[in-house]
Amino acid sequence: MHSINTNTIPNRKAVGAKLIQIAKENKDIYVLTSDSRGSTAMAEFGKVLPDQLIEVGIAEQNLIGIASGLAKSGKKPFVSSYACFITMRSIEQIKVDVAYSNSNVKIIGVSGGVSYSTLGMSHHSLQDIAVTRAIPNLDVMIPADRIESEKMIEALVDYDRPVYMRIGRNAVPDVYTDTNYNFELGKAVPLREGDDITIIATGETVSHAIEASDKLKEQGIECRVLNIHTIKPLDEEKVLMAAEETKNIITMEEHSVFGGLGSAVSELLSQHYPTKLKILGFPDEPCITGNKQEIFDYYGLNADSAVKEALQMLATD
Hints:
By secondary structure, the protein is an alpha/beta fold. It has helices at about 10-25, 45-50, 60-70, 85-90, 90-100, 130-135, 145-155, 205-220, 235-245, 260-270, 290-300, 305-315, and strands spanning about 30-35, 55, 75-80, 105-110, 140, 165, 190, 195-200, 225, 230, 250-255, 275-280.
């Protein structure tokens, strides 16, 4: 169920295909884009269901406003736009028109993190979780693979809350092989069992966490892996259980070390169960450019770095 397999279908394409499938049966579903149909894999949606797609051009603030109006009219709008722009250019509209107004809008930020690896800081999206997580009445989610992306879209159709969902650009390894696994919004998924240390990961770092756990097992270390696909609301029960049972926590995320998954876990543990914690993410500096794997390796977002951190942490027990 939780072995790592290669995959050639990006999460964004899985999302686009799933939305077409659901929207054919549900005419209340609309997709809104901002000159982003190609990159967000919504071009096919527009061909199949042209009356349910709204293209506003490069006008992210208007995109959110229109989506909110549709939601207030009883429709179920899914906004699909570049993560770096939709969360930075229209953050006030997300705060007021969507969250404060309690509009049932699902915002899909595509090509999050360092998906646009060579384009630099203007196109990297390493602050989106921090800013959206701080907005009241806005849930924040990142699926780990194409299967979880599809499960998340299915669940969000009937989830009557504002949501920011972030996905990447390129294909990532399949974390799941069983498409019938029980997916629940807000519930972390244990992917490896272990009582020595826990790696808590989200999004595209989950496969690296699983690989790290398998490498640690070869050294006799039992490493638990928790996939946090819903960062807000956080599954506090499973995180606290991991802290109590393993005493050592590493978090991994394709995001700044400020305000993301690591911060959410730290905020919880510091108040309820202080625990040794290491946050693996991007430091407070403009990120280097290169291909995605080069960037991940440079900043230590890979299995080998997680293994090294785990061994150092356990050596101090």
